[in-house]
Design brief:
By secondary structure, this protein is mostly helical. 57% of the residues lie in helices and 5% in strands. The protein has 24 helices and 5 strands. Strands 2-1-3-5-4 form a 5-stranded mixed beta sheet. Helix 22 (473-482) packs across helix 24.
């Protein structure tokens, strides 16, 4: 192990209380992951598209473009692995596959840490990562940030090795790893550039840069080519107005304006000052844009920061040549591009970069403690406190799945408790046959329908336009008929009291996103283009982890399209 500053020690012959405690902590967290892997999927993003797209592709028997931003025409490499798991072993195999791939990133954190830290510290950093709120939240679901973190770690580790040895083979495999991230999410483009910059930090930078770029494109470009062939935009719909869109790619200025306003989530200005201040604010501030309270990175980086600064100063000579310079450089470049260019400031979008930061900070802090024994105990106590806090948070998250298994709940009871508005699915199922197709606008309900579903996101697609700027009921009817939709699960009621509340809000000048959709649906009902066949009240779950938090009741109507009585029937 050429990069490790410590002599490897045999695990069994050097057992200690600390080591045993860390091992037990890791085992408990992995056991909780297994409980989640054996339960039905309940995460909203997974139910909206991570698991729904593979299910739809299997049902269709082929890959078809879905003209929907962020949740449709996107890089789908990881979702294709879900498809294989779902197609070969069913839903349980798919959820267990996400569990195993989530563990893969934690294994990469341990392997990478072990190159620069002793066994105890490597186990501690692995446990910190496993119990990070964003990892607990996403590793066992279909969300892809944790899996992309695995590609990031592999890529920078290989680039560092290529820089140390000048061996081209490491650069080539690094291109494969970066390409896998690029083929999994658009933000992989940012990391690919940052990683490429690090490839250039060596004597034979031209040949290494060439092979890295060629392999990167060969592995990561296929989904961008697919998007271009189907839409005219390789990163649909970010180049709207610049690229010439295909006729079948339904997108227009109205939906683009709604989409841009909807995805812009910035709580602080994108300037130089806040590029340094954002990590601190996003960690300590519970602002809803950051989502740091539920799915943040925890306090570990802040705890390590002062110790790391001391370590960097004490070991400032030779930092340029240290392999972790590649880790830090890739992390900083990718973060800066994301902060200044990206439309969102959700902290969890940076999760693929977090292991780089965590390992760099941990190594610098441990080096400082090794040279200044006075800070060794405070460092260990602070890290132990963070691990304890995060273990409690992980345990609270897993209670939900423990109840499901120990109490022997059936899947329906579990989903009612964990999926917002799942009652609406139960109420609608008896009215839907195999030849029907239902329009659904509530993302977390899409996966659990047995009948074919058209997911009409109000801000990310114009195939069936229900966004706030859409007001033409005739156009809506034509779009519904063109998509062979027979039923619509409407997120509102047509009861008199509900309608009167809507009218009052319109008179007072208040509008909700669904108001234009409601008005168009109301008009279609008046024209006898729709008939309500089922009504349902559904519980909107405030939190899966903390079910005691206040939940609210929402109203649904299942409407059936009636072409025989609709004056727009000839508008198909």
């Amino acid at each position: 192990n050429l990069e490790c500053d410590f002599e490897p020690e045999p695990f069994l012959s050097t057992l200690s209380t600390v080591r045993v405690a860390l091992g037990i902590g890791i085992a408990l967290v992995l056991g909780g992951d297994l409980l989640e892997g054996l339960a039905p999927p309940a995460d909203a993003d997974s139910l909206a598209y991570h698991f729904t797209l593979p299910k739809a592709i299997l049902a269709e028997g082929r890959l078809t473009p879905i003209y929907q931003a962020m949740e449709g025409t996107i890089p789908l490499l990881l979702q294709m692995t879900y498809l294989v798991a779902l197609g070969t072993g069913g839903e349980s195999t798919m959820t267990l596959w996400t569990m195993v791939t989530g563990w893969g990133c934690s294994a990469m954190v341990y392997v990478t840490s072990r190159r620069y830290l002793c066994l105890d510290w490597s186990l501690a950093i692995t446990l910190v990562f496993l119990t990070t709120p964003a990892v607990v939240y996403g590793a066992g679901s279909g969300q892809i940030e944790v899996r992309n973190a695995m590609f990031v770690l592999a890529a920078v580790l290989l680039v560092a090795e290529a820089r140390r040895t000048a061996a081209l083979r490491y650069t080539i495999i690094a291109g494969v790893a970066a390409g896998l991230f690029m083929a999994s999410k658009y933000t992989g483009l940012i990391f690919a550039f940052a990683c490429g910059c690090m490839v250039l930090l060596q004597r034979r930078w031209l040949i290494h840069g060439f092979f890295f770029s060629m392999v990167l494109l060969a592995v990561g470009a296929q989904w961008y080519v697919w998007n271009y062939l189907n839409t005219g935009d390789p990163i649909f719909p970010l180049l709207y107005g610049l690229a010439e869109y295909r006729p079948q790619a339904i997108w227009d200025a109205e939906i683009h304006a709604v989409y841009k306003s909807g995805i812009t989530e910035k709580a602080v200005p994108a300037n130089l000052f806040w590029s340094f201040g954002y990590p601190l604010k996003a960690t300590l501030d519970a602002h809803h844009t950051f989502e740091s309270l539920r799915v943040g990175f925890g306090p570990m980086a802040l705890v390590l920061l002062p110790f790391s600064c001391v370590g960097l100063w004490l070991n400032r000579r030779g930092l340029w040549r240290h392999p972790l310079f590649v880790f830090a450089g890739a992390c900083v470049i990718a973060y800066m591009i994301w902060f200044f260019v990206g439309p969102s400031q959700r902290l969890r979008h940076l999760l693929p970069l977090y292991p780089l930061l965590l390992i760099c900070f941990a190594v610098a802090a441990v080096r400082a403690a090794s040279r200044l024994p006075a800070i060794d105990l405070p460092l260990k106590v602070a890290c132990a406190a963070v691990i304890g806090i995060q273990l409690v948070g992980a345990a609270v998250f897993m209670i939900n799945y423990l109840e499901y298994h120990i109490l022997g709940q059936d899947d329906e009871a579990f989903l009612l408790r964990n999926v917002s508005e799942y009652n609406a699915v139960i109420a609608a199922r008896p009215h839907l046959g195999v030849n029907d197709r239902v329009l659904v606008s509530n993302r977390q309900l899409v996966y659990h329908f047995d009948a074919p579903v058209f997911y009409a996101n109000s801000m990310q697609q114009a195939v069936v336009a229900i966004h706030p700027k859409a007001t033409n009921p005739r156009k809506l009817w034509k779009q519904l008929r063109t998509q062979n939709i027979t039923h619509a699960l409407l997120p509102f009621s047509f009861e008199t009291s509900y309608v009167e509340r809507k009218k009052t809000r319109w008179r007072d000048g208040f509008f909700l996103e669904s108001d234009s959709y409601f008005r168009m649906a109301m008009r279609l009902l008046e024209l006898k283009c729709l008939v309500v066949v089922e009504k349902a009240s559904a519980v909107k779950v405030a939190s899966r982890t903390l079910p005691a938090l206040r939940s609210s009741i929402t109203e649904f109507s299942l409407a059936k399209l009636t072409p025989a009585t609709c004056p727009y029937a000839d508008s198909r």
